[in-house]
Amino acid sequence: MTDFEAKVLADLSVLKNQMTALVGDGNAGRIGSIEERVTRHEERFQSARGFAIAIGGLITLIQFLLDFLRRK
Q: Residue 44 half-sphere exposure, CB side, CA atoms within 13 Å?
């Protein structure tokens, strides 16, 4: 085996190890971890959005009630 072939095989081995770390080898790799974090972030964002909509509705009802009581 020549030096060139040995270097190519070593580089391929390093590349294989890096791809295994990135994608995973049956377990969640870094990409899977990032996907999981994005999913959790989206869930939290949707919860916060729902809470903001509920608070907005509550404030609107309070404003209507105050206007109604003021007119009496």
A: 6
d(CA 71, CA 66): 9
Domain assignment of residue 48, given as a range:
3-71
Per-residue pLDDT of 43-71, as tens digits, reads 999 999 999 999 999 999 999 999 999 98
Q: Of 16, 15, 40, which Cα lies nearest the Cα of 32? A: 40
pTM of this structure: 0.56
Q: How many domains does the chain have?
A: 1
Alpha carbon separation from 22 to 9, 18, 39, 58 (Å, rounded): 20, 6, 18, 46
